[in-house]
Amino acid sequence: MDTYDKSRSQTSPIDLCAAIDAAVTAAHAGAAILQSYAHHRADLVIDRKARNDLVSQADREAEAAIIQELQARTPKFGIVAEETGGKPQGHATWYIDPLDGTTNFLHDIPHYAVSIALIAHAGTPLSATETLAEDTPVVGVVYDPSREELFTAVHGLGAWLNGRRITCSRTQTIEDAVLATGFPFRDFSFAAQYMPMLHDAINRARGVRRMGAAALDLAWTACGRYDGYWEMGLAPWDVAAGTLILREAGGACSDMHQQDPWPIGGRVVAGNKLIERALHEMIAPHLDKKD
């Protein structure tokens, strides 16, 4: 895992209002590029990074537009982006996925999103009275341009869909829940753990859905469309924004091993607080111990 300079000092808190404004503007800039390519997918140049891991110039150009906007508005923050990399640094770091759901996008399935989150690092003040004890998502934006749905959240202030406050569902048991998940598609090393989890979920839950965009899975859980969600093999930028949106909607989003302060390792368990706890109990018997 990347490290950053813990010796830094800061005299004033992060301006979260300015940060969410920058993230929303950047998300729209990236989405505009995606949608300009959406009508000409056959012309896209597509590269294969690994098995079932694709990237197109739509991803790259959208990411460049997002980074340009964020660097102009928040030059002191670090940037970690899917295509161009980077490392955590400064008082806070942007985590960027310019196109979550690339396979959906390339196959003309209208279920993909831009995901942008700001992670404030341990020791960073958020106000005159609050200093973070651990790395914490503090700004989150997930924008679905196909539906024109903008999910946003700010630490301590709440979560919204197109400006309307959202809350997660009140479903109390897995038996009454619709769950979201993601199958192994790139990294199959955890398939032996995951498949028994899926078997249990199919046999217990009201329904299980796999839509192929983790950021939207979290956002949809935040607004109550799903009751819970779990997945393995993700990247930090897949889940950073959705983690905050779900938490600010009254839910819980945690590392599957319950060790990291947010699911930076890409193994996520989420839902309203009852369902998240029940999911941890359901998957625990099948989960290998973390080294």
Q: Taking strands numbered 1, 2, ... along the chain, how are they ordered across the largest sheet?
A: 4-3-5-6-7-8-9-10
Low-pLDDT residue spans: 1-10
CATH superfamily of the largest domain: Fructose-1,6-Bisphosphatase, subunit A, domain 1
User: What is the averaged pLDDT score?
Assistant: 91
Radius of gyration (Å): 18 Å
Overall geometric form:
globular
Count of discrete domains: 2
Name the helix and strand elements from N-terminus to C-terminus, one letter apiece: HEEHEEEHEEEEEEHEHEHEEH
Instruction: State the CATH architecture of the largest domain.
Output: 2-Layer Sandwich
Q: How many E-type strands?
A: 15
Number of helices: 7
**Main beta sheet:** 8 strands, mixed
The SS-based structural class is alpha+beta
CATH top level class name of the largest domain: Alpha Beta
Strand content: 25-35%
Percent helix range? 25-40%
- CATH fold-type name of the largest domain: Fructose-1,6-Bisphosphatase, Chain A, domain 1
User: How far is the first residue's CA from the last residue's CA?
Assistant: 14 Å
